[in-house]
Amino acid sequence: SYVLTQPPSVSVAPGNTASITCGGDNIGIKNVHWYQQKPGQAPVLVIRFNSDRPSGIPDRFSGSNSGNTATLTISRVEAGDEADYYCQVWVFGSWVFGGGTKLTVL
Amino acid sequence: EVQLEESGGGLVQPGGSLRLSCAVSGFTFSSYAMSWVRQAPGKGLEWVSAITGSGGNTYYADSVKGRFTISRDNPKNTLYLLMNSLRAEDTALYYCAKGSDGYGYSWFDPWGQGALVTVSS
Prior knowledge:
The complex is a heterodimer of chains A (106) and B (121). Chain A has 106 residues and is mostly beta strands. Chain A has strands spanning 9-12, 18-23, 33-37, 44-47, 61-66, 69-74, 83-90, 95-97, 101-105.
């Protein structure tokens, strides 16, 4: 089965840039989607198709995907960005999530 | 506004059964695939099952295959998950989520608030 690997945690100071990676075998040829989940809330889609932002998502959120790594980048990080972030792909009849990354805003 | 509301969660003994429902509004239900995704306490997201908009194709994670059945009633705008032979490791918050199109071979948006299933004696 296909495995997505994320770092358990990432820390960043307010105003700086956070990068959250998602590793997978040749993930660059797949479409990667990213979700934000705040405590006690349902996940929210923040990036679809590697780099496309759904309506209502700030342009501080961006994504890229190449080779064996996809990356979610959050620019000018705010306290409200503190959350768990999950990557996700579809692989021939199965939807796979990464283990999640807890973003801490220092 | 798209809305998804899960119901039917609760406490069940190991080996028991439970049926979750997800009532939706705000979009043409039959045009979109739907999925169930679960989250065990303090853990990450795990995709459980999916069904195409027509209901003609269903998909299951290996962890639930043969025990869970996904279905939908398009005239009633409702998604279901019948869970049999429940195990302690099935304890989780179960979310229903709307797929990107009729086949749903991509992302989930939006998600419901979840239904808690606890399997314990």
